[in-house]
Design brief:
Pfam families: Thioesterase. It comes from Ktedonobacter robiniae. Belongs to the thioesterase family. This is Thioesterase. The chain is of the alpha/beta class. The protein has two domains: 106 residues, Rossmann fold (3-Layer(aba) Sandwich); 55 residues, no CATH class. The chain is built from eight helices and four strands. Strands 1-2-3-4 form a four-stranded parallel β-sheet, with helices on both faces. α1 crosses α2. It is globular, with a radius of gyration of 17 Å. The two termini are 34 Å apart.
Length: 224
């Protein structure tokens, strides 16, 4: 999904999509069930590319990973993204309003997925596809539901937080609360659609990313 964005983003943007284990070509690999090992693996994969100005975009679980990765880079490498885009996830310090679902039976878990409107109906209706994706979805839920925000030094980079107007998982106040995670500016935007607004409002989202990236002063990513 992200790979095709390069055709609509500015030419100077070198898009580097991250594919987590358990997905697409890495389908046979076990997915992560805790966030910090996933953050560490992502950091090791990306470090060779962070000698140039960089920005992060993360959606849903990816938003949480991008946030914790930004904190690690700032604390350990004296690096920070020029801008952090987070999408489809409440601010990390906000409590989870939902009852944990990762230990439910397959049938109960599938029903919970349908209720939260976070999984496409054509997936939920296809037993063969569900057989493949249930372990991955359960692992993703485990990562998110076992995550505990630890207060620490604020990020210094701008944060831009996105959500879909019909996404039940992100209330307006949970989106705005991302502002407490940085000493820099924070902006929010809600797009038409639900959790999958990345596809249904793709053009509007990429226009916003293009605008924000164009405003970044291209200097090497060093600590202030």
């Amino acid at each position: 999904m992200f790979r095709s964005w390069s055709r609509e983003l500015p030419l100077e943007v070198d898009l580097r999509p991250i594919q987590f284990p358990g997905r697409e070509r890495r389908l046979r690999e076990d997915p992560y069930t805790h966030i910090m090992p996933l953050v560490h693996a992502t950091k090791q994969a990306l470090l060779p590319y962070l000698d140039k100005p960089f920005a992060f975009f993360g959606h849903c679980l990816g938003a949480l990973v991008a946030f914790e990765l930004s904190r690690q880079l700032q604390a350990e490498q004296h690096l920070q993204p020029t801008i952090l885009f987070v999408s489809g996830h409440r601010a990390p310090q906000m409590p989870d309003r939902f009852t944990p679902a990762h230990r439910l039976s397959d049938a109960e878990f599938a029903a919970e997925l349908r209720q939260r409107n976070g999984t496409r109906e054509e997936v939920l209706q296809n037993p063969d596809v569900m057989h493949l994706v249930l372990p991955l979805l359960r692992a993703d839920f485990t990562v998110c539901e076992t995550y505990t925000y630890t207060p620490g030094e604020l990020l210094r980079c701008p944060i831009v937080a996105f959500s879909g107007a019909g996404d039940k998982a992100v209330l307006p106040e949970e989106l705005v609360s991302w502002s407490a995670m940085t000493s820099g500016p924070c902006a929010t935007q809600t797009f038409p659609g639900d959790h999958f607004f990345l596809q249904t409002a793709r053009s509007q989202l990429l226009q916003r990313l293009t605008r924000d990236l164009a405003q970044i002063k291209l200097e090497p990513p060093v600590s202030p």
